[in-house]
Design brief:
single chain; mainly beta; 4-stranded antiparallel β-sheet; 11 strands; 126 residues
Length: 126
């Protein structure tokens, strides 16, 4: 089992920045990919970014590329999401997720992730 705990959500003005963190514990050596998703009220959960556990390869939603950056620490116990130039439409609950290896994997599909954090609220005011 893997436990994920997000932190860093806050109320921020448009144009500001935030860095979210996701701390992992448990059988983290079994992981393949870490991801960030977000869900706004009344909307489906949306892929934000992902990073390979072993290679550091990064994946981004096209609409967020250039403003958001995913990274992880060398110990592979924490993944970060740096969010810059925030807009009111970035307001959502942000979730950290992690996936075990599998033969077929779609990086932006929530159903392909095995573990989820409880979420952290990001609110961007105009």
């Amino acid at each position: 089992q893997v436990q994920l705990v997000e932190s860093g959500g806050a109320l921020v003005q448009a144009g500001g920045s935030l860095r979210l963190s996701c701390a992992a514990s448990g059988r983290t050596f079994s992981l393949y990919l870490w991801g960030w998703f977000r869900q706004a009220p009344g909307k489906e959960r949306e892929f934000v970014a992902a990073i390979s556990w072993s290679t550091d390869r990064q994946y981004y939603a096209d609409s967020l590329k250039g403003r958001f950056t995913i990274s992880r620490d060398d110990a592979k116990t924490t993944v970060y999401l740096q969010m810059n130039s925030l807009k009111p439409e970035d307001t959502a609950v942000y979730y950290c997720a992690a996936a075990r290896p599998r033969s077929i994997f779609t990086v932006n599909h929530p159903s392909d992730y095995d573990y989820w954090g409880q979420g952290t609220q990001v609110t961007v005011s105009s």
